[in-house]
Inverse folding.
């Protein structure tokens, strides 16, 4: 159950777009569409932003989108806003009937 | 409104045990699978365990298998995590979360801090 691989940090200016990658294996990301993304602000609980690779829960901005190709999932945030600054985590179901998170990516809005 | 509230955290010596609770309200607890997720200080999220809505299926991360046990009491709308043989590396904030659909953790508590230290 190794953690999924995410870049430690990404940054962008307001209005720009950024993409966060999440790389796993064929036993997790590559094998299932149950990939989710969570946003976490400092001192707060995580918040679900994307589920099943590309679906947004009600109330989540349409500036966020998700995709997957092979063993890598991606989260794209367009039109960056100051409020987007947070930590982002991907999560995937695994062939062991367990779940695994990525190491997390700190998004900085310059 | 939907709410989950963890409790039971504290400071415990290595090798000892602790039981966490997660009280649910605002939804039909017995209809949902529930997860435990932890976060060591300054670190990322780590999935710990999941239990099905009726308690018949349970799965654990390798790091806690054989030491932690997840359970639930649907009559009390409460989720539990029994943690035995605690180690320093189990120090973390422990969150419980509702699984609204497969893999979608839509409501999380604010967490309870467990510190394993002598």
């Amino acid at each position: 159950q190794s953690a999924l691989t995410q870049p430690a940090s990404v940054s962008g200016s307001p209005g720009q777009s950024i993409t966060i990658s999440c790389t796993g294996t064929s036993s997790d990301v590559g094998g299932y569409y149950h990939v989710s993304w969570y946003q976490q602000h400092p001192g707060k609980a995580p918040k679900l932003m994307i589920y099943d690779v590309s679906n947004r829960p009600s109330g989540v901005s349409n500036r966020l989108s998700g995709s997957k190709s092979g063993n890598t999932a991606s989260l794209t945030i367009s039109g960056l806003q100051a409020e987007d600054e947070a930590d982002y985590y991907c999560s995937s179901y695994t062939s062991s009937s367990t779940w695994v998170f990525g190491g997390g990516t700190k998004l900085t809005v310059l | 409104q939907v709410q989950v509230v963890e409790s039971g955290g504290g400071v415990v010596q290595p090798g000892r045990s602790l039981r966490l609770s997660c009280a649910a309200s605002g939804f039909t607890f017995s209809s949902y699978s529930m997860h435990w997720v932890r976060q060591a200080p300054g670190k990322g999220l780590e999935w710990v365990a999941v239990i099905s809505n009726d308690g018949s299926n349970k799965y654990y991360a390798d790091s806690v298998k054989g030491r932690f046990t997840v359970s639930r009491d649907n009559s009390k709308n409460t989720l539990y995590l029994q943690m035995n043989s605690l180690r320093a590396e189990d120090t973390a904030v422990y969150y419980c979360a509702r699984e609204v659909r497969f893999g979608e953790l839509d409501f999380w508590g604010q967490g309870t801090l467990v510190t394993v230290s002598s």
About this structure: Chain A has a mean pLDDT of 96. The beta strands of chain A are 9-12, 18-23, 35-40, 47-50, 64-69, 72-77, 86-93, 99-101, 105-109. Residues 22 and 60 of chain A are 20 Å apart (CA to CA).
